[in-house]
């Protein structure tokens, strides 16, 4: 069978690689084949068998599951790769983890975890014997059992099997700042067609051979997706080879369908790849070579559904798309299918692989690593075992002074940048903190980070470049998918980070965050999974201050998407100023097992609260700003002005200022919400307010005019069960965007101070008649605004120069 050597393995490393080994002996190959056959038997058994796991009696329909679920087609290839990774890990004493891109092949990864004993360690009832094998088979894709995909329940996994396209980004994230770790990554030929995976091939330009670990991609080409050919599998080998070389990799090709020849070739390919990695790391770490390594990639071509039924009902199955899921679908009702299934299972010769009690024989386990080096037991795939607390410095060093509410302005994210820079400095030794983003770190006012570290970059540098560093821990690439994948892999392996992004474009990773939330929710139910650092978003350059970029940059809906997800996991914060942003950041960076979304502006913003007041307010999550309202004594408020978000807060306070002076007899309450989940009932979210607390804050029968950062219907959805919902009126973004002035954005969406004053007048009983002239003045101000900006191109002085009068 053809095997193509690593033709230019020394390119970019300063010297050619050392002599290549001859590979394992025939006896070692026989042991590898025994392990592979055992894994294939266990994978097929999980899909089909309810009982009779060792085929001690002839197979009968009652031994078969009533519903046949799972994916066979990719499983033999995953088993092959797992088998050979075990050999090199054990022989070389490697610390390794594997990301299984075709994670729908869950039977394979479960089978190997059971074989190496890690499965029985976390699930003692699934013992490594015949009884445990039967439980392993029965639970797969069965009610009360485990999913068909690789999932949090799978020992050794850090990648959800439904996440096609994200595997390589996760692998690189796991390798960052893990210099002693090998991260193998199986890339399926179907997922290789996705945009995120295509971008991920460029991640090798960000991998530092000195401080980071190594990623070994294995591009597994078995020819088909669910029903169609796979693009890369149909490329001529030479064309694919050039493509991968263009990405900066050195391909090693292994192709075949004869098991022993493939074993020999793949073993040699693994050795060659790992020799290449070891040499590149040695040159960088010991000899100071700074040329970017061209890392190896193994291209493995084997048939889809290999070793399964070649033909079913007169049509080919092995090597075709028909083997993708369940090759023999009618086993319980079709005697010929049942006969074929038994012949298929017995072709692995289970009596040679397992003893009478169902335990794997020694030769099957000859190349299985021990202890934490087993792929199913790697602590890097259970990152909470390795997590160290993040050193967040005292906020007093970064907080802005507030002697008077709303008297001064700061850029909140710039203030936060000082805190992040100190964290980056304090983790210089541990290297367990990174900031990622799509080319927006400086734009988002976080450039204080560059006083401590640079942007990770291994490609060419020019004299005009700034802030590039081979060992940098800020990571910028114009692919939100890649940023998300890096940070997911980084946090799941026990490190901390922050994803900074323009608010409108974080939607690109909607499906990725959805899968990560599902992962965290499930992991929280597994006692053996340790809590990992939270995935933290900082969304800035937000909808209300994208007046210069226009409609395309105006979308606050990511919050809606996240708040639809598991309440155990999601948190959303809208700090209204610099000090509240610091307090929120302090909390989320220390947290575990959450997805935290923080929305904060980068433009100058009024400082409303001093640090102590900000801490107390953020701890409450929502509260009355007594200094902003006009309530006195025991009299209940006539109306409540509520706000969430920095620009809505400014407009509410400007409206309160107007009402305080125009209608001083009005009893007005001002409520600010930082933690959006506080609006939910206690029964629906851990942070939710009990009805009694909500009613005391917002009242049950007074008009509540709520100025919200995003789409107004979200507030209604969160509060629809509350007693006062009928009196709730929400203003927010309603897709009225364009290129215009900052204040015109809020006017266009009826979120401006003048409209809020009019809303209060319209909704307080009896106030409309008494305050008709005030309402008219507010409407006139809006009309005057429209004329002013069209003549002058900037906002009216009364708006641009406004400050809180108190």
TrEMBL record:
SUPFAM superfamilies the UniProt entry points to: Thiamin diphosphate-binding fold (THDP-binding) (SSF52518)
Renumbered residue ranges of the record's region Disordered: 1-27
Keywords: Lyase, Thiamine pyrophosphate
Cofactor(s) of this protein: thiamine diphosphate
Entry keyword Membrane: no
Keyword Lyase: yes
GO biological process: carbohydrate metabolic process
GO terms assigned for molecular function: aldehyde-lyase activity; magnesium ion binding
Entry's EC annotation: 4.1.2.-
Ranges where the Xylulose 5-phosphate/Fructose 6-phosphate phosphoketolase N-terminal domain occurs: 25-385
Domain Xylulose 5-phosphate/Fructose 6-phosphate phosphoketolase C-terminal intervals: 602-804
Family: Belongs to the XFP family.
PANTHER family: PHOSPHOKETOLASE-RELATED (PTHR31273:SF0)
Alphabetical list of HAMAP family matching this protein: Phosphoketolase
Protein name: Probable phosphoketolase
Record organism: Streptomyces klenkii
